[in-house]
Design a protein that fits this description.
alpha/beta, Spore Coat Polysaccharide Biosynthesis Protein SpsA, Chain A, 9-stranded mixed beta sheet, two-stranded antiparallel sheet, 13 strands
Length: 294
């Protein structure tokens, strides 16, 4: 069983809930304090043992993201000349964190959160496990979220593993909800994408953007696209591919230890900003005092 060394990060959306801010700036480039969202995801992946970071973007309009992970000689020279050595070091580390690969999600692929996988399928070998991350989900945790999933998958003989969090019934219709096999605490048997809350029973195990998958699940997705076998709202949902695989071979759900922070809409993005700002030692006391003064 090979180690998981590749991650696919999906960032091909339009960020419509953030318009007009995301008209020219990808949502994943919006800052959380002083780093863009996408950089936090890459750092989590690298801390989890990932070497190759495959970022799936739209065909046009997201070049700034690729630029962020490249060297910038002019900026670096300016920082050096102005004696800003600490900032220079931080900037230089960005391009050296991993081997970056950028793949384009073309318009011939259907809409849906499994399509970025097909855009990057050429980079995954037969029999290989890899990690997958949604570009707008962040996790505050002691052990990197992705590492928790990789370690758990290792313990389960390399089986695919889905990160989940328990959500209240009132939020069930926002997420894909997994159902476990009878008598099991972690083996997935079925799932529903954004279900009617009254149609399923507890526990409400919501999928969020962390997965350890394998090439076979990619093959299932490709087959379903070729057969025009899509899911709810005529989209290619990852949850459907996972469940199809789970009918034949084991797939597990891991309740991640940590706080799931989504940046998918302005309100949750602002909450995430506050949570991460309060983790920063250099100004958390002043910021907390300001919040209390409101």
């Amino acid at each position: 069983m090979e180690n998981v060394t590749k991650v696919i990060i999906a960032v091909a959306g339009y960020g419509t809930r953030f318009l007009p801010a995301t008209k020219c700036v990808p949502k994943e480039m919006l800052p959380i304090v002083d780093k863009p969202i996408i950089q936090y995801l890459v750092e989590e992946a690298v801390e989890s043992g990932i070497k190759d970071v495959i970022i799936v973007t739209r065909e046009k309009g997201q070049e700034v993201m690729e630029d962020h992970f490249k060297e910038n000689p002019d900026l670096e020279q300016t920082l050096k000349e102005n004696g800003k050595e600490e900032i220079l070091e931080r900037i230089q580390k960005i391009s050296k964190m991993a081997n970056f690969i950028f793949a384009k999600q073309t318009k011939d692929l259907p809409y849906g959160n499994a399509s970025p996988l097909l855009a990057a399928k050429q980079y995954i070998k037969e029999g290989e496990r890899f990690a997958y991350m949604f570009g707008d989900d962040m996790v505050l945790s002691e052990v990197p979220c992705l590492k928790q999933l990789i370690d758990f998958s290792d313990q389960k003989e390399g089986s695919p593993t889905v990160g989940v969090q328990i959500v209240p019934k009132s939020e069930v219709n926002r997420y894909g909800i997994y159902q476990l096999a009878e008598g099991s605490t972690d083996r997935i048997i079925d799932a529903v994408e954004k279900p009617d809350p009254d149609s399923i029973s507890e526990p409400y195990l919501a999928q969020f953007g962390r997965f350890v998958l394998n090439k076979e699940i990619l093959d299932i997705a490709e087959k379903n696209v070729n057969q025009t076998k899509l899911g709810k709202a005529n989209e290619l949902w990852l949850i459907d591919q996972v469940v199809e695989y789970a009918k034949v071979k084991p797939v597990y759900a891991l309740k991640v230890e940590g706080e799931w922070m989504t940046t998918g809409d302005p309100l949750r993005y602002m909450k995430t900003q506050v949570k991460y700002a309060l983790k920063r030692e250099e100004f958390k006391d002043d910021f907390l005092a300001f919040l209390k003064s409101l």
